[in-house]
Write a structure and sequence with these properties.
Layout: E1 4-7, E2 10-14, H1 20-29, H2 31-34, H3 39-47, E3 51-56, E4 59-68, E5 74-82, H4 91-105, E6 110-116, H5 121-127, E7 131-136, E8 143-149
Parallel strand pairs: 5-6
Antiparallel strand pairs: 1-2, 2-3, 3-4, 4-5, 6-8, 7-8
């Protein structure tokens, strides 16, 4: 049985195939930030157990897609997104907390990610304690590299 995490009236759990359309709808509403994510990306992440969803009253309101790297002790956070109607209610923080818990159980001691420099999400990562490591060129815009050390190893 997949793990789940709860906070207030939100539940975070491992995604199932039936969640794909809801995740895609949320991602499409934030295409300017995430780019275009096809349904196959979500299906692959579900098969690999690399997608958590946040739900409120059974409705998907957010997701985080990640990869516990095979080599090393890091987890790459690929995408995190919360429906506009559920933003600023702790959903993003709960998704990161669930990812942190999963990292520790998989013996991964850091979360790393890249975020376009122009996005307000950078303030969210700083608020959660991620450290800004560097700014590097991206294909279309500069990317901020972030790292959250989880202790351990």
């Amino acid at each position: 049985m997949p793990q789940s995490w709860t906070q207030r009236n939100f539940l975070v759990r491992s995604a199932i195939l039936e969640d794909i359309q809801d995740c895609k709808t949320i991602a499409d509403a934030h295409r300017e930030s995430l780019g275009f994510l096809v349904a196959a990306v979500f299906a692959d992440a579900i098969r690999r157990d690399q997608l958590f969803v946040a739900a409120q009253d059974g409705q998907i309101v957010g997701f985080v897609r990640f990869n516990h790297r095979v080599r090393g002790d890091e987890t790459a956070l690929y995408d995190i997104c919360v429906a506009t109607s559920a933003q600023r209610q702790g959903v993003g923080r709960l998704l990161v907390q669930a990812l942190t818990s999963s990292c520790r159980s998989h013996r991964r001691w850091a979360i790393v990610l890249r975020c376009p420099e122009c996005l307000p999400a950078n303030a969210f990562y700083a608020y959660l304690g991620f450290q800004r490591v560097a700014v590097e060129p991206g294909r279309r815009r500069p990317l901020v590299r972030w790292r959250l050390d989880l202790g351990g190893s």
